[in-house]
Amino acid sequence: MKISDLARLADVPLSAVKYYQREGLVPEGVRSSANQVDYSDKHVQRVRLIRALIETGGLSISAAGEVIGVLDAPDMPMAETFRVAQHAMSTPRVIESTPTAASRARVVAVAQQQGWCFTEDNPGIDAVARALDGLLAIGFDAPDDYLGAYATAATSAADADVNALTSLSGPDEVAELMVVGTALGDPLFAGLRRLAQQHATSTFFPITDPNGNDS
């Protein structure tokens, strides 16, 4: 197929496909003649993947490039694939503040209480610690049961991720879902949390209509 067909099937502008190519995210097609380059369904899948990482996952072009590099690396162990992907997807687009040592220690303690196997350089530690610092800045010192509830929910989500991986047979499929699922799992979890919050708040703070009836 021509590059214009590739863009149409992937549902992205032709200019975006060419930009992805310039950034090294999409491999070149096969030259069939002096002025003709052919693309395959694999190119369509790659462009769709990049679009999902950037538009839905919120990754920068450079972070998406790191993720793609992980997928393209031959014979990379799954554990290393996941580690590199997590760090690539945790690279901030803007300079973020360094979390306090107290908040980092709290996060580590919660992870240990959950019985999680983790490394001290996991980017999740700083992410949660910064969130705790932000809550402290508005005067809310998150109690242990509050943080524990989030940790329990995270365990359930992580278990769902692993169960999804076990349903796949090919190593390439597993690696792709592991990497892409890590990126898209964040907005997936956040969106469901928004829905659950609306339900919880409507129960705790029922809306009263003009006639005084709760709804």
From TrEMBL:
Q: Does the keyword Transmembrane helix apply?
A: no
* Molecular function terms, GO-annotated: DNA binding; DNA-binding transcription factor activity
PROSITE patterns (alphabetical): HTH_MERR_2
Q: Gene3D superfamilies, per this entry?
A: 1.10.1660.10
Do you know which Pfam families this protein is assigned to?
Answer: MerR_1 (PF13411)
Q: Which InterPro entries does this entry report, sorted A to Z?
A: DNA-bd_dom_put_sf, MerR-type_HTH_dom, MerR_fam
User: Would you say which domain of life the source belongs to?
Assistant: Bacteria
Task: For this UniProt record, give its keywords in alphabetical order, as a comma-separated list.
Answer: DNA-binding
Q: Which segments constitute the HTH merR-type domain?
A: 1-70
Please report the name of this protein according to its UniProt entry: MerR family transcriptional regulator
Which organism does this record belong to? Answer: Rathayibacter caricis DSM 15933
